[in-house]
Amino acid sequence: MMNRALRLPVLALACLLTAITPATAEDKKPGHAHILVDAGTGAVLEAENPDMVLYPASLTKMMTLYLTFEALHSGRFTWDQRLTISQNANDKEPYKFAIGAGNTISVQEAVMGMVVLSTNDAATAVAEELAGSEEAFGQMMTSKARDLGMTSTVFTNPSGLPDPRQVTTATDMARLGLALLRDFPEEYKLFASRGMTFRSMKFRGHNAFLVQYPGAEGIKTGYTKASGYNIVTSASNGNRRLIGVVLGADSGNARTQEMITLFDRHFGTKVSQ
């Protein structure tokens, strides 16, 4: 148990790619961590290995979305602006719109694709439009992470596809969840979307917690072999909002059940069904 405030210091861009190494290698069982934070006060309610350096997988798209929302607010993007799917973007597996290189999607479709379906081609199209390349966008992402007080995170691509240099911690992911809620409260509501329609086709999302837990507001799930099953999510019981992170669960169901247990315990009454 922990009961300290989750502070968000701003640190300089020092010791980026070489100073941080993951706690697990690609061929080993992922490490495990969780943290639960009161969104209103920033207090850490419970944590296990919160500063263990692990792989984010598609939780990476939370930062891609943060920078997308920032671009929308600054006028760099508009919701109906078209983004071209490059060959590089179209090659990203497994989740993608798969409309083919040279075709376009709107910024709104890109956002919803990342939120609901974790579309890697959409994340790459955003990165290439904003920074010119995935590598340059990774540097933008890491710089913003430092601005938000994410002291142990390095981003190298916008999608979360495997890269041993791309690492994070449960503490840092909680900070990013809090920042999305604080800085983009209207856009944050999109994370509660359980599905989307794209070109007349209906799709369901991957976040079982969003479906199973009353008051769940969603944010993002992720999985690679090296990361295990990850999730960052928030939920409200009407009086209080909590943000939780689970990294390195053994299965999708295990991460959902662990998150349900955390929320139930700290809401004080069992509200899950």
From TrEMBL:
Picking any one GO molecular function of the record gives: serine-type D-Ala-D-Ala carboxypeptidase activity
**Keyword list, A-Z:** Carboxypeptidase, Cell shape, Cell wall biogenesis/degradation, Hydrolase, Peptidoglycan synthesis, Protease, Signal
Database matches in Pfam families:
Peptidase_S11 (PF00768)
Q: Where is the Peptidase S11 D-alanyl-D-alanine carboxypeptidase A N-terminal domain?
A: 31-250
Its Enzyme Commission number?
3.4.16.4
InterPro entries in the record:
Beta-lactam/transpept-like (IPR012338), Peptidase_S11 (IPR018044), Peptidase_S11_N (IPR001967)
Q: Which residues form the signal peptide?
A: 1-25
Q: Which domain of life is it from?
A: Bacteria
Similarity section:
Belongs to the peptidase S11 family.
The name of this protein is D-alanyl-D-alanine carboxypeptidase (Penicillin-binding protein 5/6)
Native organism:
Peteryoungia aggregata LMG 23059
